[in-house]
Amino acid sequence: xxxxxxxxxxxxxxxxxxxxxxxxxxxxxxxxxxxxxxxxxxxxxxxxxxxxxxxxxxxxxxxxxxxxxxxxxxxxxxxxxxxxxxxxxxxxxxxxxxxxxxxxxxxxxxxxxxxxxxxxxxxxxxxxxxxxxxxxxxxxxxxxxxxxxxxxxxxxxxxxxxxxxxxxxxxxxxxxxxxxxxxxxxxxxxxxxxxxxxxxxxxxxxxxxxxxxxxxxxxxxxxxxxxxxxxxxxxxxxxxxxxxxxxxxxxxxxxxxxxxxxxxxxxxxxxxxxxxxxxxxxxxxxxxxxxxxxxxxxxxxxxxxxxxxxxxxxxxxxxxxxxxxxxxxxxxxxxxxxxxxxxxxxxxxxxxxxxxxxxxxxxxxxxxxxxxxxxxxxxxxxxxxxxxxxxxxxxxxxxxxxxxxxxxxxxxxxxxxxxxxxxxxxxxxxxxxx
Length: 434
What we know:
Helix content is 32%, strand content 23%. By secondary structure, it is α/β, with parallel strands linked by helices.
């Protein structure tokens, strides 16, 4: 089917912002027409085919499809937590047209056969685009580098040992050099496990009052500084995952000022919540890195505002309810985020931290730039589109979730704005009641 999306506020960061219409023909953007402008001569949408459908976007924002650089789809091996299909269903419900899935599956995505399996299952689901992130080292064990050439040929979009920090600096250097030549992003899980060992949440007053071991900021920032040093040494880019501390933000800001090719992401829980949330939410507010202090939260927000932090990702990490019910100390780290990220992040627009344009850039086009994939509402591009109603208000409840899991720290939060239509390659994969 072909579409005429009419009357929306079109925001394509760096290229276009204003009221207008978008024509989608044969899965691609055929025309973008600002309000009051004539349709370009010769456009096929002047004589629309019989299956042409008009979508009224008045009062809505029409944006490039959202891209999440950091999710855990759990399949293969942990389907009781999430499958590729349920994760992609959660993604499109949340407005994401594409997700990057991490390698810590069982078996680990360290061989082309696993990459092929993931892509095959994503194609069967037929929802969001899935960009597999392959492992840096075999089995995520930090000892033997994978064959990045083979993994890229199989369809891997990036490499990361996310979930396990890579301690061997020699291997990390090698990965940056080899992957850099292949134009595959290296995503760093920046963590010193020796400083983390036994820790349950952020080191500070709340941890002491709850009687649990804490994790200091330095556990993250030490390794962020190493990755910056290796990027500076090799000239190869590196992407820092889930930034949570003020020291990390400062280090990344200073590195960018020196011209080091470092990029970074954070997640909504780091700029909206602090470790105080653990008192209320318990294990559903337990993740790695942990929720930090109010000072850290403010530093992350400032990093988003000034461009130090390039992207908002979710680190969507589903766990079964019985696993999270094991108690704060025994429960696994991780929270889900695909369904809630857009609504939660719109709070940055409401409080003036970011403009709509800036938010969409950090949830869409910046991620595409890092991955090296097409994105944007340009004529000829695949029609990957997210339509957002910025006015709708609701309370986040588990009954809304499409994910197989329910471990969200945002349950009960009142929010405003959500995706009401998600289109991938010119096909509507999610649609709310418009």
